[in-house]
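Page 37, top half.
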Amino acid sequence: MTVAVLGSINMDMVTRVAAVPRPGQTVAGESFAMTPGGKGANQAVAAARAGASVNFMGKVGGDLFASELISSLRTAGVNSDCVRVESKTSSGVAAITLTKDSQNSIIVIPGANAMLVVQDVDTLAEFFPFSTCLLLQLEIPMDVNIKAARLAHQAGVRVILDPAPATVLPDELLVNVDIITPNQSEAKTITGLDANTYKQTNDVIARLVDMGIRQPIIKMGQHGVCWYEDGKIKSMKAFNVDVIDTVAAGDAFNGGLAAALDEHKSLDSAIMFAQATAAISVTRYGAQQAMPIKNEINAFLATRDK
């Protein structure tokens, strides 16, 4: 079986600074790097490195970035046959500012990602009869996600939605989503409720269940994760690691989650595996290059069990 991923593919332009400049202020940066990213591609790479067979669909532009972005997918073992080239536009770009306290701010220029259309989904849907999960995010047009979720749900594929960038979600999408994985900020955008404490998070989960989501998972960063299953709200603390870069930590989580579910792990075990995947990723710089391989994740978990 495989994991299907539909989403964005970007070139990340990462600037590291002591502090984000105020309006009108110029500051000296510490370093600059360009690395393959995009929430869809990041999650595809994370899932593949975590042990899953992955089929990815997205679009790149007719520029110098395109070949490098596709090469990064293939190097990680992702099937990129469904990646299309839009020659008359640019590839997606993310301008990322990373501060010394490991916080990031991101500006995304969609480029070719915005050129995905509902007809493109039919190509990826050919893999649904052989897929356990479909990973979706919100850096591509909403109508494309809606169709993909509907076709996957009809095929019995578990649909996992990372609702980022945060926006109000249409019922046509939610009705076909099995698992949603917002962080605290995204959860507030979707539900209108704060998720700053475990008590507040319980209320957010209850609201998401009322909205029709079968298994909400709230990513709480350094505070861990909360989720709902079989009528119960559960929680897990974050692993204690030395954080140096939080870019794509959420993507690492979703990729690890899908890879674990693809192996038919229980949701509890899959979330622990996803937590470990994200924990390792934040100890490294970059997005796709920070994603750990399956043996690393299992070794990490083995040391935490002792």
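Page 37, bottom half:
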Amino acid sequence: MKSVPAQPATIAPTVQAGPAHAFLSASGRAWRTLKRDRYALVGGIGVVCFVFLALLAPLFAPFSPNFQHPEGLSGIGAPVGPNNVFRFGTDLLGRDLLSRVIWGTRVSLAVGLLSTVASLILALVIGLSAGYFRGAIRTILIWITNAVLSFPTLLLMLALVSVLPRGIWIVVFVLSVFAWAYPARVFYGEVLSVGQREFVDAARAIGAGPLRILLRHILPQLIPLLVVYFTLRVPATILAEASLSFLGLGVQPPTASWGSIIYEGARAYRSAPWIFFFPGAIIALAVLSFNLLGDGLRDAFDPTASVRRGGGR
């Protein structure tokens, strides 16, 4: 009987996880790490509360933000302090300060989120293009980025909002114009690093075009960095909007924002300190919540970050 030659064992092909699968795996690890960070959880709860307060402002506000209550001023025309009717007191026109702070949450968060989204989209486009393409495109984009970084941002913002028509959308535009350069440099460096990895070379070898490589292979690697920068840029933008509004160059009355409320009460900072205290405290809580969440996300996506900063929290 002839012996049948043994058939070679079938070797299962090795499947390498693509960038999208790697991102999902990293996201799962980051979520497990984030759940153990009590400070980040407190910040996340604070952010969610502020978002709900902004979305449901008509339900939470006891009065219309611009209604001038006759009983909101004393007999000599001074604002009324906190009491059972007006929990945060009233402003110089007899309007309920609590209602204005709640409605101001909607405006301040909207300006902060829209400005941050617009600036990060611009930064992402410039960072991807400068990091992937060669020659004149990279040179021009990096030169523009360095030029924007070299400008005195605050002075240019003040000059720009002074000559443009006042309004919410102008504030969003101005804050977006001067907030994209630094994250664009960070994205540029990350794209240079990711572009040298094996899966990008493999994509080029099979004939994938630049757009496909950028969107399907490189962009997923930047999402964790994008999320962290988003949570850390929003509070900075909120503070910038409040500063412009406090100087009278941001959101204009009678529209309520946290900065404009403080600006309107600047004349009575001694006789009615609650006009400053309550919106200022809300700004501090919002900034603290976003910063705690952003720090937690940074540690979750990069576990060595807390070690490099001295052992974490």
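Margin note: The radius of gyration is 26 Å.
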